[in-house]
Write the structure tokens for this entry.
Amino acid sequence: MEKQQLPNSTLILVFGIISIVLCWCYGIIGIPLSIIALVLASKAKKTYMEEPELYTGYQNMNIGKILAIIGLILNVLFLCYVIYILSQIGWDALNDPELLMERMEEMKAQN
């Protein structure tokens, strides 16, 4: 019997890579992509473990899962950083450049 590609193994790898690349987009895009990749990897692993002799592409799925975990961690850390900065500066300062500069100077003085 000819081996077939593990379902979604390439998609998992692509989502894992994209979640790392998009971690600088405030975590909003990367977190869902990471979670989707992890869910798909879980399903693909179950499928592979039932009959491993039928499928290829387990390495792509495994690497994609690792990249999705790394992407999820990076996205969550960056999102926490953005939330921290916004809590320090405030929403009102985002629309007023002078107030923004004033708050940034206050943050420098505290350090």
In short: DSSP finds five helices and two strands in the chain. The first strand starts at residue 4 and ends at 5. The chain has a mean pLDDT of 92. The helical segments are 9-21, 30-50, 58-89, 91-95, 97-110.
